[in-house]
Amino acid sequence: MPWHAGDVRGYSREVSLEIVDVTQTFGERRALDSLNAVVPDGVLTGLVGPNGAGKTTLLRVVLGVLSPDAGSILTDGLPVTADDRRRWGYMPQERGLYAGMPVGEQVIYFGRLHGLSRAEATRRAHALLDELDLDDRWADRTDKLSGGMQQRLQMATALVHEPEVIILDEPFNGLDPVAVANLSETLRVRARSGCVVLFSSHQLDLVQDLCEVITMIDHGHTVLEGNVAQLRASSGLRQLRLHITGGSLDWVDRLHGVSVVGAEADEIRLSIAPSIDPLAVLDAARVAGQVTDFGLDLPTLSQLFFAAVAADNSAESVR
Fold this sequence. Notes:
Layout: E1 17-26, E2 29-39, E3 44-48, H1 55-62, E4 70-75, E5 78-79, H2 82-86, E6 89-91, H3 103-113, H4 118-131, H5 147-159, E7 165-169, H6 177-192, E8 196-201, H7 204-210, E9 213-218, E10 221-227, H8 228-234, E11 238-245, H9 250-253, E12 258-264, E13 267-272, H10 278-288, E14 290-297, H11 301-318
Parallel strand pairs: 3-8, 3-9, 6-7, 7-8
Antiparallel strand pairs: 1-2, 1-4, 4-5, 9-10, 11-13, 11-14, 12-13
């Protein structure tokens, strides 16, 4: 199908990929614990969490590499089949490229594995490598490419058969900002064309900027899920950012519901309870020193993660 940027649709439509009560154990260790998640089409969905949270295990279950002890993977409400998965695109965390093979032949080879004719695989390979700024490397050996170029090439091998479900495991690891921007735009185009795009990452700040929807997991189960903007806006967590010169921070201790969460040079960040008027805090800061800049910020995904994990641990202790 042709790729073109279209309007990104909302989150409240029919779910394209659903993970239902998935449990996976390895001996005595429970890697996934009744995990639930939804992955809509048309937007980028980030699977986030710290190393060891269960992200790669979950992707392997979704891809059928592992059979879960319990639970199911559905697409449009029906169980995913082996035929469904053969049409998907997958980019593993560890590169699965043939080092001595030329770049163009590499993409053609993966296209042929998905049933494309050589002519069609060649056409798509040229189009993809041009999109990923690699077409001038067509005849180069894969092992002569930089790490970032190899990552872009691996993306091309995952997309050559134009899959409607795209799953990537830590695709931005070790990439410089230019490579991140390049791969991000490639994924945005696919999502806007109606694909399901799910990728795992422990880089929460990157996911915050890139994804519209997240599933956040810790110790094998979901702790937070939904639209990123809505989650940040509805969290009740707020930070007042102040550039202030002169005086100490003693004035903060005298304010109820306000605490310092960061202080660097002349900038401080204050956590403000929902009941506190930020303007009252700003007035107190002006009394204490000269305020040259200020702003009210929504919480980052990192802060939402720590808050969600704390709440989840508290609920676990009650149970």
